[in-house]
Amino acid sequence: MNHPPExxxxxxxxxxxxxxxxxxxxxxxxxxxxxxxRVLAQHRVRRWAFVTAWNPQSQPVASWRNxxxxxxxxxxxxxxxxxxxxxxxxxxDPDWTPEPSVLVLGMSAPDAARLGRRxxxxxxxxxxxxxxxxxxxxxxxx
Length: 142
Prior knowledge:
By secondary structure, the protein is an alpha+beta fold. The chain has one domain. The protein is built from four helices and seven strands. Strands 2-1-4-5-3-6-7 form a seven-stranded antiparallel beta sheet, sandwiched between helices. A hairpin with a 6-residue loop joins strand 1 (about 15-20) and strand 2.
């Protein structure tokens, strides 16, 4: 699957913040986080997925639409019994508004890709205990 290099670069130049205690956790694609490993162990899960509902296909939409999409994502996860932590995707580019997101605990890669597609996302970030954060493309052929 071909993706514009600037889109791939934008994902790599994003910090994926997870609201955790005692301090927020900063994730970057390709890196491992011992702090997140501790959170996963606390919750007795081995994998995770970082997902947003904001700005489908990386196209800015009205704030009220993004807020409604985010509420739909969180409500759907809760209804399906998924545990998640509040999160925020913050690009290095100051012109791109940070995107409220979630870190879903225990979510498999195929489920994360399906969830990303459901909300029109190009990609999600996934990982597992002891591993590095990985970019997972969500297109139809993913």
